[in-house]
Amino acid sequence: MKNIVHNFFKGNNNRLSGLAQLTIYTLLVSIGFVYIYPILYMISSSLKSTSDLVNPMVSWIPMTLYLDNFKKAITVLDYLPSLLKGTVVTLLPAFLQMIVTAVVGYGFALYDFKFKKIIFIMMIMTFVIPIQVYMIPRYVLFFELNLLGSPLAIILPALFGHGLNSTIFILIFYQFFRMVPKSIHEAAKIDGAGPFKTFLVIHVPLAVPAFITVFLFGLVWYFNETYIASLFLGVEYPNIQFRLASFVSEFESQYASEQLIQINEGIRLAATLLTILPMLIVYFTIQRWFVEGVEKTGVTGE
Predict the structure, then answer these.
(1) Which among 89, 48, 113 has a CA at the least distance from the CA of 219?
(2) Could you tell me the domains of the chain?
(3) Are the C-beta atoms of 298 and 175 separated by less than 8 Å?
(4) Residue 301 binned pLDDT confidence (cut-offs 50, 70, 90)
(5) Which end of the chain has the least Cβ crowding within 10 Å, N or C?
(6) CA dihedral 44, 45, 51, 57 (to 10 degrees)
(7) Per-residue pLDDT band at 136 (split at 50, 70, 90)
């Protein structure tokens, strides 16, 4: 049995056989199609006019490129202002969380201190315990501090290392800094470098892949997080995600006086595509560094 499997994959020359290559490529194309199909469908449908949507002869390629769907979606979403508001509670918390978790992971990896193991276990428990368990105490705290409806309700937890999935980021940096040879740290200490100078001059440049990985994961998680944002920000601070959730009602209220303009699948998918567009641009921009960071830090996502 073992020889049969080996011959199937390696062939006679210890290389992948033609059948094995065909099997692997078929699986890759099939899996890739499952992920890419929704994006292609959104792009195709968002560029269709009403006549193309109801025309059974038009499947993927529209008769004409109809951009009016995007114009209406941008208007209803209040796109640029909503995107800028979302940047404040997405980009800034992700950056602050990256810095804070890097410092905490650096301390856990290279220094021994009293109650280190207990603190480390308590930190892991913050990830194991469901976030809904401590939402009520946090809500009461933010209410007493008059932070509800303010971006500070998202920014301050990130600043103090208690943002979204901070435990994962601390473990990433902890594992990465542990892989750095201790001789480098000891040599810097002999040369008179203090802890923070050693961190900034030596360890930060070595940990660039980890920084990119943590920042991108944090950016995506904050961008997609609607539970915490709806609880702490509410309608006082509507970002692009809230606009998309109420897109149908907003569209009907704005175009109620125009009987000929009705919402359709093309307009809804155009709004959805505009919502995910920032994350697509970010990913394709730093894709190479992100893949390198995932390989070096051993992160698989969730």
Answers:
(1) 89
(2) 2-67 (no CATH), 83-297 (1.10.3720.10)
(3) yes
(4) very low
(5) N
(6) 60
(7) confident
pLDDT at 183 over 80: no
Helix H or strand E encompassing 67? none
Sequence-distant (6+) residues with CB within 8 A of 94 are 158, 215, 218, 219, 221, 222
What would you report as the CA-atom Rg of the chain, rounded to the nearest whole angstrom?
25
Do residues 198 and 189 make contact, with C-beta atoms less than 8 angstroms apart?
yes
Q: Please classify residue 121 by burial: count the beta carbons closer than 10 Å to its beta carbon, then call 0-12 exposed, 13-18 middle and 19+ buried.
A: exposed
Sign of CA dihedral 277, 278, 279, 282: positive
Per-residue pLDDT at 223: 86
Residue 6 DSSP code:
H
DSSP designation for 134: G
Residue entry with tokens 């490529």? 25
With vertex at residue 282, the alpha carbon angle to CA 228 and CA 288, rounded to the nearest 5 degrees, is 125
* Residue 225 near residue 233, CB atoms below 8 Å: no
Give the Cα separation of 13 and 6 in Å (integer): 11
Half-sphere exposure of 301 (CA within 13 A, CB side): 12
Q: Helix count (H) and strand count (E) of the chain?
A: 19, 0
**Residue 17 has which token pair?**
């056989």
Task: Find, among 115, 149, 135, 128, the residue nearest to 232 by Cα.
Answer: 149
**Cα gap 247→267, rounded to integer Å:** 10
Gap between the Cα atoms of 231 and 157, Å rounded: 14
Q: How confident is the model at residue 7 (pLDDT cuts 50, 70, 90)?
A: low
What does the block give as tokens for 183? 């001789």
Task: Give the whole-angstrom CA distance, residue 124 versus residue 166.
Answer: 10
How confident is residue 102, by pLDDT bands cut at 50, 70 and 90? very high
User: How far apart (Å, rounded) are the C-alpha atoms in residues 159 and 218?
Assistant: 13
Is 101 within 8 Å of 173 (Cβ atoms)?
A: yes
